[in-house]
Amino acid sequence: MEMKVEHRTGSNLALDETDTPMEQEGQSAQGAAAQDLNLSSAAFTTYYTWTANGVHPSVNFVNANVHANSRVFLNISEYGANPQDRFIGAARMAVYNIAPYNGGFKAWVEISWGSPLKVRFDVFVDP
Q: Of 90, 59, 53, which Cα lies nearest the Cα of 74?
């Protein structure tokens, strides 16, 4: 009798939803420690709101403090009554590519839903 051997790894593994993200040891970017992480003192956060759905390969975010060589990190989430009421709903949303330029940045955004949703983009910029 021959036994079947399955070679399942990575995304092929059975989904175990009991696992939760684990906090890893790391450095925080507060006060003088920010300098140890090579962040400039001009680093900042902000957010944008938008109502849309579908695939948008070049969403333009205008911000005079962003430069072509800035490090820009962008997150997307759906929100309810106001931008502080963020939640994870049934819609799949993603930010794929970010390209900073002098005066802002562009991002490839996908919101997989049949009608426009209210979304919030949280941004961290190290100019």
A: 59
Q: What is the pLDDT of residues 54-96, one digit of tens each?
A: 999 999 999 999 999 999 999 999 999 999 999 999 999 999 9
Q: Write down the pTM of the prediction.
A: 0.73
Query: Could you write out the three-class secondary structure of 36-92?
Result: HCCCCCCCEEEEEEEEECEEEEEEEEECCCCCCCCEEEEEEEEECCCCCCEECCCCE
Beta-strand pair 117-126/71-79: antiparallel
10 DSSP 8-state letter: G
Rounded distance, CA 30 to CA 33, Å?
6
